[in-house]
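Q: Here's a chain of 359 amino acids. Please give me its 3D structure as tokens.
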Amino acid sequence: MKKLLYGLTLALLIVVVTACGNSEDAQTSEEETEGTASQGNSDTAATRTIDTLSIGFVPSREPEEIITATEPLKSLLTEELAELGYDIGEVDITVGTNYEAVGEGLSAGTLDVGLIPGGTYVLYDDGAEVILTSTRAGLSNDSNNPVDWNDNKPTEPSEDQVTYYRALIIAGPSEKGQELADKVNNGEALTFEDLNSANWAVMSSSSPAGYIYPAIWLDEHYGKTITDLENVVQVDSYGSAFARLASEQLDIMVTYADSRRDNANSWKNDFERDASIWDETNVIGVTTGIYNDTISVSKNAENMNEDLKTAIQQAFINIAQTDEGKEVISIYNHEGYQEAASSDYDNERKAQELVQSLN
């Protein structure tokens, strides 16, 4: 009787243990199935479709040149963003009629992304958010003394990556331009009257190299600003300014430090000068350093959110690390990108405040 009772008890125990094991296996299998299904839904949800991603460039080069050079960016950006979970129907690239047009587009939300200088960004930071700062090759010249730039021509790139650049005040081949250059190269200080007697070309008032920092330079050296000059024209691009300098319609232009390298071929081939740009132009003023260009996004665009900002940020960093990407971004002399914060451009804000007070 005891043996029979023991056998029944043992059999019951085996049944219970087996049932529990089957229940746990079933639960585990169910959890794994749910996890797989959940992961599949997450992947589906992560792919977001954007019909058009609009990008605006400022006209620091000839607009057609920018459009042609940046055409490959459309496919590069589409591919990178696809890897980051975004299906982009079309990348639309435009060049603003001026710097302000791109800033206004970001503020209005008609542009999603803008490649704009720091000065333009701080003017429109109510509607634009900086996400990247460009890096670029340094130059063989980085002196505050214009004579050093003239004694060491041509200016060549260096291997160092920098996050700033300078603006130069350049005198052209006109009689007045050569007169001012001769004074500087002979060690004579220019007076404001010297400068005021010349014809100047500047960019729009939000351009760091084409307006803001040259205005600060004038204030620091003469207590004057661009609006105090009697003969100033605003041009739509640096290429236009060099064309007018070459034709001797203008005596002085303001520009970024490596712009003569960018326009050396045009100087002889398009503008039909006999001598090189290095022989016929001279630096007569050098500004302090200007923090590099930004990639900024709209705060008001319908497409924009935190996830897309992060994806765009990573996409441009990745693109800049490829040979094809480097070629595209070289149109702006960019060589790479690093993450940026609004506070990086506090000096630009001070510069803008000074320019507005001078005006």
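Q: Can you summarize the key feature?
A: The longest helix spans residues 2-46.
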